[in-house]
């Protein structure tokens, strides 16, 4: 994969949940080496887009197509998408009682590694590996022994998502509000984690409400989403403008 | 019974599954004193045992099936069941090679490579096939240690004084409806006696099989560990598929004398009926252990995955001072299965202790009930109990209930109860999927985590089997 190559191409995507259409003709293109930000009012469909791309079974796609590295993403099972290099950092990560974080992370790592013909790690090797990654994210190794996300604070859950991204080393990472609920230090650390992933061969899609994350992880493009569509795309300065002016001037324009 | 009648009984077509074509000796349906006399006669039993059966039968006639359990089924017609079936020729075999090839094929189709398994694992396997023991291996090694491990019928013949001394002491014939029925009509089972001071040199394992359509199965198991003896006993079950409900009402009695320990593990995987709830075994079991001696210990570990209906409460009566009772259980229900299971810990002696760890997993439209009783008698000074009952629901249409009954009559007792319920839903599975992990593997990981405290109590090879079994049972139940 070289810089500039198209990694993810979304065309005319319509999707609904519980019989309600949420995405109404969405277009988006991510190329290798790029960071994109998606902003937009609450309920505009940002998380819906993220989950549709990752393959959440509750959502149905009624029209449009998505090519991921040239293949039909929508034809793949969600686990297959992950094995092919797609990653979703959840806005609200679920708790999985009874499953230790360490064994969950290792299973995920080995499954994705197996999918791309990489080397799998035994528990001891993995322990070294994961501790290294945790150190970068200034995470206490104690999180390995706890059950997945169980009782984690909001910020801790988000860091655990970034840890998973760092372990799985995806080609396209979609991070749904990776920055919400983080304190100032955590925001810096999470930003560091995202920046560390950033490379010429991959792409990042950041869903966010605030400029502050984008101060640390500078996007190449900023998209504004409203009522299930991208209504404006611009350079990083667009985010600054949104911060001062809000969305009315754009959504009003869209309605007109 | 004429040969022709027998043949037509044996050769009834089966809508599902398979049945071995081994010639069976099947009694006509129905229960009466004559039938009981016939069973006792066929088994060439002593008079006292016939009397035991008849007393139980007469008492049974005065009882009605219990209604309190949280299970639903059409009334059982006890006159529509055949109470005796045995392979016609009773081979006395020195090795598995001599076993009827047809029978061996059945075992293979059940996925029980028992010949090799027994040899490799060093496990003595007492094979129960249609109520009659066909073969017993590893007898010599056990005999050397002084351990008696044989079929119940053999025990009645060879060690009548032991059987007579202990039979019915833990589960009296009048205990409950199904125990009374079992006491009247039991055909075979296992007997195990570990003499004073002996540590049984190997795990004892019995594979129960039910093979003949509509022949009720009434197993009787008796295990006695004398002072300072130890035994670990494993029981595993798989049944071929068939179409009509089949009643199973076993009785298991354990007796532990001073400082003796009995570990009784079960992996139960009987036919549970199909996805629509048609067919399957009715499993109404009475299992009870008596910690008779001081410092004695009885542990029940069970992994219950089968049967259409399960009604089962392995219990401990803690009579001896400082005796210990334990109950570790995983009960899984899927599709239309119903399980009402749990335990009773009856503290009678001073400083007795008990632990209850129950993990219920429900999937499909099944219902899974934990029912547990902790009773502390007035003389059980310093008794302690800890109970933990966790339920896991898979999907939205199943149910779980917990009924703990606590009855404490001694103020110095300490009884603790904890409970939790969690649900595996679409969101958890999607979380796994988004990390590359498919639903089956995700469920297996969640279930293993959930059941860890119980699986660690199982002998190693059983733990592996149990893990696989749960995965298999939940296949396709989510996503
Ligand atoms: N299961 C559902 N049933 C009905 N409506 C739903 C369902 N799930 C989501 N929606 C609706 O879809 C719309 C888009 O939701 P989505 O979570 O994608 O918004 P968002 O842009 O991520 O918002 P936020 O910024 O608040 O995270 C919302 O109006 C939401 O109520
Ligand atoms: Mg959202």
Description:
The complex is a heterodimer of chains A (256) and B (479). Chain A has 256 residues and is α/β, with parallel strands linked by helices. Chain A has a single domain (6-255), classed as P-loop containing nucleotide triphosphate hydrolases (Rossmann fold, 3-Layer(aba) Sandwich), CATH 3.40.50.300. In chain A, 38% of the residues lie in helices and 29% in strands. Chain A contains nine helices and twelve strands. A six-stranded mixed β-sheet of chain A has the order 6-9-10-3-11-12, with helices on both faces. In chain A, helix 6 links the parallel strand 9 (172-176) and strand 10 (203-207). Chain A is globular, with a radius of gyration of 18 Å. Chain B is an alpha/beta fold and 479 residues long. Chain B has one domain (17-428). Chain B is 25% helix and 35% strand. Chain B has helices spanning 3-10, 33-42, 47-60, 101-109, 114-121, 139-145, 152-158, 160-166, 177-185, 426-433, 439-455, 460-474, and strands at residues 24-26, 85-87, 124-129, 132-136, 148-151, 188-194, 204-209, 219-225, 230-238, 246-248, 251-256, 261-269, 281-291, 297-304, 309-312, 315-318, 324-333, 338-347, 353-362, 367-376, 384-394, 399-408, 414-424. In chain B, the strands form three sheets. In chain B, strands 5, 6, 8, 10, 11, 13, 15, 16, 18, 20 and 22 form an eleven-stranded mixed β-sheet that branches. Chain B has a ten-stranded mixed β-sheet with strand order 4-3-7-9-12-14-17-19-21-23. In chain B, strand 3 and strand 4 (132-136) form a beta hairpin. In chain B, helix 3 (47-60) runs antiparallel to helix 9 (177-185). The longest helix of chain B is centred in the C-terminal third of the chain and has 17 residues, at 439-455. Residues 1-22, 87-93, 109-113, 115-136, 206-216 and 238-243 of chain B have low confidence and may be disordered. Classes of the chains: A alpha/beta (256), B alpha/beta (479). Chains A and B meet through helix 2, strand 7 and helix 3 of A and helix 10 and helix 11 of B. The structure holds adenosine-5'-triphosphate and magnesium ion. Adenosine-5'-triphosphate (ATP) binds next to strand 2 and helix 1 of chain A.
């Amino acid at each position: 994969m070289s810089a500039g190559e198209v990694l993810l191409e979304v065309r005319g995507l319509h999707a609904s949940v519980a019989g309600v259409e949420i995405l109404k003709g969405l277009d988006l293109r991510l190329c290798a080496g790029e960071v994109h930000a998606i902003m937009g009012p609450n309920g505009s469909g940002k998380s819906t887009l993220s989950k549709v791309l990752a393959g959440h079974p509750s959502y149905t796609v009624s029209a449009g197509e998505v090519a991921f590295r040239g293949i039909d993403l929508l034809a793949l099972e969600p686990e297959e998408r992950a094995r092919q290099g797609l990653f979703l950092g959840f806005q609200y990560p679920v708790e999985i009682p009874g499953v230790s974080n360490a064994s969950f992370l290792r299973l995920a790592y080995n499954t994705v590694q197996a999918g791309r013909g990489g080397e799998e790690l035994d528990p001891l090797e993995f322990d070294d590996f994961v501790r290294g990654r945790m150190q970068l994210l200034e995470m206490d190794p104690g999180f390995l022994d706890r059950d997945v996300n169980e009782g984690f604070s909001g910020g801790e859950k988000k860091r655990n998502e970034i840890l998973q991204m760092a372990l799985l080393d995806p080609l396209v990472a979609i991070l749904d509000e990776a920055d919400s609920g983080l304190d100032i230090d955590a925001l810096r650390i999470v930003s560091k984690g995202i920046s560390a992933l950033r490379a010429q061969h991959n792409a990042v899609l950041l869903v966010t409400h605030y400029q502050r994350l984008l101060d640390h992880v500078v996007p190449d493009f900023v998209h504004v989403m409203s009522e299930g569509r991208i209504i404006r795309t611009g350079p990083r300065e667009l985010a600054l403008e949104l911060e001062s002016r809000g969305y009315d001037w754009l959504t009003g324009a869209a309605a007109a | 019974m004429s040969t022709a009648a027998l043949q037509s009984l044996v050769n009834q077509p089966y809508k599902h599954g398979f049945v071995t074509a081994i010639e069976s000796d099947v009694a006509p349906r129905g229960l009466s004193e004559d039938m009981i006399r016939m069973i006792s006669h066929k088994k060439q039993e002593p008079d006292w045992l016939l009397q035991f059966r008849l007393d139980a039968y007469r008492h049974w006639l005065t009882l009605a099936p219990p209604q309190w359990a949280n299970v639903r089924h059409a009334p059982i017609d006890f006159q529509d069941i055949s109470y005796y079936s045995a392979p016609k020729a009773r081979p006395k075999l020195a090795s598995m090679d001599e076993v009827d090839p047809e029978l061996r094929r059945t075992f293979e189709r059940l996925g029980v490579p028992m010949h090799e398994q027994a040899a490799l694992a060093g496990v003595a396997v007492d094979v129960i096939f249609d109520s009659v023991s066909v073969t017993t291996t590893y007898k010599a090694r056990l005999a050397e240690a002084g351990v008696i491990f044989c079929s119940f019928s053999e025990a009645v013949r060879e060690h009548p004084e032991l059987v007579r001394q202990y039979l019915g002491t833990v589960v009296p014939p009048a205990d409950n409806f199904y125990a009374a029925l079992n006491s009247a009509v039991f055909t075979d089972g296992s007997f195990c006696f570990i003499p004073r001071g002996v540590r049984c040199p190997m795990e004892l394992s019995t594979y129960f099989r039910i093979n003949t359509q509509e022949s009720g199965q009434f197993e009787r198991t008796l295990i006695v560990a004398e002072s300072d003896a130890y035994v670990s006993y494993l029981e595993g079950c798989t049944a071929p598929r068939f179409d009509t409900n089949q009643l199973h009402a076993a009785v298991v009695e354990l007796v532990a004398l001073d400082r003796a320990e009995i570990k009784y593990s079960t992996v139960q995987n009987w036919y549970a009926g199909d996805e629509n709830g048609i067919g399957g075994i009715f499993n109404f079991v009475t299992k009870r252990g008596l910690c008779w001696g001081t410092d004695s210990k009885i542990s029940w570990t069970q992994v219950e995955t089968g049967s259409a209906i399960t009604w089962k409460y392995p219990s401990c009566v803690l009579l001896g001072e400082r005796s210990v009772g334990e109950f570790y259980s995983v009960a899984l229900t899927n599709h239309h299965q119903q399980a009402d299971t749990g335990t009773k810990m009856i503290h009678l002696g001073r400083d007795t202790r008990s632990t209850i760890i129950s993990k219920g997993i429900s999937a499909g439209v099944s219902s899974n009930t934990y029912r547990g009783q902790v009773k502390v008698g007035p003389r059980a000074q310093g008794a302690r109990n800890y109970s933990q009952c966790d339920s896991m629901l898979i999907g939205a249409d199943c149910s779980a209930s917990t009924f703990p009954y606590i009855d404490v009559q001694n103020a110095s007792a300490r009884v603790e109860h904890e409970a939790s319920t969690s649900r595996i839903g679409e969101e958890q599975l999607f979380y796994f999927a988004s990390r590359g992990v498919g639903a089956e593997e995700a469920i297996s990981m969640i279930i293993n985590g959930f059941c860890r405290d119980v699986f660690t109590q199982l002998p190693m090879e059983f733990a592996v089997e149990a893990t696989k079994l749960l995965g298999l049972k939940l296949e396709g139940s989510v996503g």
